[in-house]
Specification:
Helix content is 21%, strand content 44%. By secondary structure, the protein is α+β, with helices and mostly antiparallel strands. Strands 1, 4, 5, 7, 8, 11, 14 and 15 form an 8-stranded mixed beta sheet that branches.
């Protein structure tokens, strides 16, 4: 009869290396950070923010900015280093007209120490999200159970992309801060980055029949329609404006360059 290993056994360097190679997310996070900087984005790495729901201090992975003329696109990025034994499956349907929008904050200097904030909703050709394009409505993390059968569990991935959503509220408030002190448009977007070849999508029609897939993809989006309230005049109590996060962006490491280019191209028109 084999002896069970002692739970008091000391950690070895091989244990640490195995953890780094197989479980630690930091290496993947650093590769994402390096790629974004190589694409010309300004990045902030591994800071903290106050969770607006649970009022707890949280860590964010990466905050990045894309500057296109007078428009600043702020990305709240969380990285999920899925193992080769797991995959992310997006179940998608055609985007409806009421879902085809994104919001922008119009920040204008009001006084030397105050900015005024207005909301602009971009629909139709002005929006990066087109009517009819496939949009995610459910995300599952798929793996195999002990009998080698597929199982889905969205709890762990849900917690990660929810952190990106909650982190955007802090970015929205920073976008309206007096120190901005210039006129500009701000777009704030939550982003989940996963490894290459780990993102799958299956497309449905409105009747629930599969029309395409499942197939490997490099990026997708999930409809959110989640709003944060921000004051219209920073520093004064009173009227607020609701900034709506219309979508969560889901991007593979291999799709990061295409993702950044698509946003730059759309807002350069």
């Amino acid at each position: 009869m084999s002896k069970r290993p002692s739970t008091d056994a000391p950690i070895t360097v091989d244990n640490i290396r195995t953890f780094i190679d197989e479980q630690a997310d930091f290496g993947f996070e650093m590769r994402v950070l390096r790629a974004l900087r190589e694409f010309g984005l300004t990045c902030e790495h591994s800071g903290t923010y106050s969770d607006p729901v649970e009022q707890k201090i949280r860590e964010f992975d990466i905050r990045a900015q894309i500057q296109v003329a007078n428009r600043n696109i702020a990305l709240a990025i969380e990285c999920k280093n899925l193992r080769p034994t797991s995959a992310l499956l997006v179940s998608a349907v055609g985007r409806q007209p009421h879902e085809a929008f994104h919001d922008e904050l119009l920040v204008r200097e009001f006084t030397h120490s105050q900015n005024s904030v207005q909301l602009a909703r971009r629909n139709g050709a002005e929006s990066i999200y087109a009517v009819g394009d496939m949009v995610g409505k459910k995300i599952d993390q798929v793996s195999l159970d002990s009998n080698n059968q597929p199982k889905g569990d969205d709890r762990e991935t849900f917690g990660r992309w929810l952190q990106a959503v909650n982190s955007t509220r802090d970015l929205i408030f920073k976008a309206t801060a007096p120190e901005v002190n210039i006129s500009k448009e701000r777009v704030i977007v939550p982003v989940l980055v996963v490894p290459t070849n780990s993102l799958w999508q299956v497309d449905y029609d409105q009747a629930g029949s599969i029309t395409a897939g499942p197939q490997l993809i490099i990026r997708s989006s999930r409809f959110l329609n989640h709003s944060w309230q921000v004051p219209m005049m920073r520093g004064y109590a009173g009227e607020t404006v609701g900034y709506t996060l219309s979508h969560l962006e889901i991007v593979t490491f291999g799709g990061l360059h295409e993702f950044v280019d698509s946003w730059r191209t759309h807002f350069s028109r």
